[in-house]
Structure formats: C-alpha cells, structure tokens
C-alpha cells in the first residue's frame, strides 16, 4: 500500500511538469538590455556626472540604436526585427524641423564596448550629435493549469490547452547629448499579452507573442516619444535644459519658429489690452 502511494505521488509530480519535457521556456524567463549597465559599467563611471548644460547645434543629427541585451536569449531581438522597430522610432523624429538627419545604427557597433567612450566613438563614425538608446525588459511566463493533468495521455500534450502563457514587455528610449553626456529626455512603452496553449504549442506561441509584444510596446513608446519631442522645445525655453545655437544656413526651424510665434502672440495680447 505504501509503495502504491509512493508511486502515485511520483506520478503526479511527473505529470505536474510534463510541459517542461517538450519546452525549455516553461516557468519564468526574461530577456533584457540595461541602459545603466551599458553606460555605467562600473562604480567609478557611475560617480561621474556632468553639470554642464548641453549645447545643441540645430538642426541636430540623431543616431538610434538598441542597447546590447543580456539574459536567457543573448541576442534578444534579432537584427532584422531591431532595424524594423528602430525605423518605427525614427518616424517619430522625422516630423520635427530641428532634426536634420536620423541614422539607424546596428546593435553590433554598441556590442564592441561599454560606457560613454564607446558611445562617443559610435557617434563619430556616424557623425551624430544626439543618441537615442532603446533598452527593454521582457518577461515571459508559462504555467500549467488543471487541464495539464491530461498531458499524461501524450495526445493531451497536442490537444489540451493546459498552459497559461503571459508576456510582459517594457521598452524605453533615452535621448542623450553625446558631447556633454547629458540625458535630454526619455519615453517609455509597455505591453502585456497572454494566451492559453497546449504543451507542444508553448515555444511557437511565446516566440510569436514575444515579437508582437515588442512591436506593440514600441508603438506605445513612439506615441510617448512624439509627445516628449514636442515638449522639448518648450522645455529648452522655460526650463533651460539646453542651450541652442544654429548651423550655417539654418533659419531656426521648429524651435526658433515656435518662440517667434509665442512672442508674436504676446505682442498681440498686449496691443488688445491697451485698447
């Protein structure tokens, strides 16, 4: 009798983790890239801080790149998907006159080193003044539900939706003036997806939802980035977050035009008040 109970207990333990026999993605997994670890790889670099107000030469040249990843999937997002997602981010910058050129920079250039020294080297290669660094953190989880008890039939692994899968994705774009090493602004994006699958369907579902999650999180981030880009010209004037100078042949564009319009509006209001 004791042996029967022991065998039964062992059987149930085995059944409770059947999905792990056909997938390495059960339980909780994560893949991420850390902006802090890339820019400040050790304690000494984290102590360094520039108090200088950045000087932006308009129109600025901008580089966009993913921060190198770490975690269970070292490659994180593959290169093709990275470029596609960065093109979406690039579109948010294109509409502003104070931006001259936007370069999408392959992740491989940032993998060659860490810290602002590496960032400065990349900026020289691409002749950009400002870098928009995209980092991310994605957590996937696949847990068995009560229906997973039917996995013992083997056929059940193919037809019974016994796994609850969830994918939460967070992305963040931090925009830096390279010369002063100062962050100008940042914009986040977040998304959460879930889907119930069979044991056999775990890997394909998580791969599909992982890509979908990145796309939706980047779309959310792009909306927030557009708002931050619009606010930045106001912050330059009101919060003194940066000084502005103009390149030869540049008439002032969006930021200068905005301030002229603001001054004109104030002048009109004063004239009306005098009447």
Short description:
With 275 residues, the chain is of the alpha/beta class.
What does it look like?
With 275 residues, this protein is an alpha/beta fold. The protein has one domain: Lipoprotein like domain (Double Stranded RNA Binding Domain). It has 9 helices and 9 strands. Strands 1, 3, 4, 5, 6, 7 and 8 form a 7-stranded mixed sheet that branches. Strands 2-9 form a two-stranded parallel ribbon. A hairpin with a 4-residue loop joins β7 and β8. The C terminus is likely disordered.
CATH class categorisation: Alpha Beta
Number of domains: 1
Structural class: alpha/beta
**N-to-C order of helices and strands:** HEHHEEEHEHHEHEEHEH
What form results from the Cα inertia axes?
A: elongated
CATH superfamily: Lipoprotein like domain
Mean pLDDT: 80
CATH topology: Double Stranded RNA Binding Domain
Number of alpha- plus pi-helical segments: 9
Q: What low-confidence regions span 5 or more consecutive residues with pLDDT below 50?
A: 5-13, 254-275
Percent of residues in helices:
40-55%
Largest sheet, strands/sense/barrel: 7 strands, mixed
Tell me the Rg in angstroms: 25 Å
Task: Give the termini separation.
Answer: 103 Å
β-strand number? 9
CATH architecture annotation: 2-Layer Sandwich
Our estimate of the beta-strand percent is 25-35%
List the helices and strands and how they pair.
Blueprint: H1 2-15, E1 27-33, H2 35-39, H3 43-47, E2 55-58, E3 60-66, E4 70-71, H4 79-94, E5 99-104, H5 108-111, H6 115-126, E6 130-144, H7 155-159, E7 163-177, E8 182-197, H8 202-238, E9 243-246, H9 253-274
Parallel strand pairs: 2-9, 3-5, 3-6
Antiparallel strand pairs: 1-4, 1-6, 6-7, 7-8
Helix pairs in contact: 4-8
